[in-house]
Amino acid sequence: MKQKRETTKIEVTPEEQDLIEAIRNYCNSYPNGYPELLEYAQDIFDRMTDMPKE
Predict the structure, then answer these.
(1) Cα(7)–Cα(39) distance, integer angstroms
(2) Is 48 helix (H, G, I), strand (E, B) or coil?
């Protein structure tokens, strides 16, 4: 039996949308798994959180 998911509408940047979709695709690939999907999501996250060096 599938659980009903609560949804919320928010505005996101294109990068945030890519990250969300990458995470969902990775989760949907479980248990077969696609390690490159996890690496892709991590790469997006790393680029989004990269702080400028002083």
Answers:
(1) 26
(2) helix
Q: What is the pLDDT of residue 30?
A: 74
Tell me the backbone φ, ψ of residue 30, rounded to 5 degrees. -70, 140
Angstrom distance (rounded) from CA 3 to CA 11 = 25
Contact predicate 25/37, CB 8 Å: yes
Q: Is 18 exposed, middle or buried (0-12, 13-18, 19+ CB in 10 A)?
A: middle
Would you say how long the chain is, in residues?
Answer: 54
Record the pTM: 0.74
Q: Which residue has the higher pLDDT, 9 or 32?
A: 9
Instruction: Give 12 or 35, the one with higher predicted confidence.
Output: 12
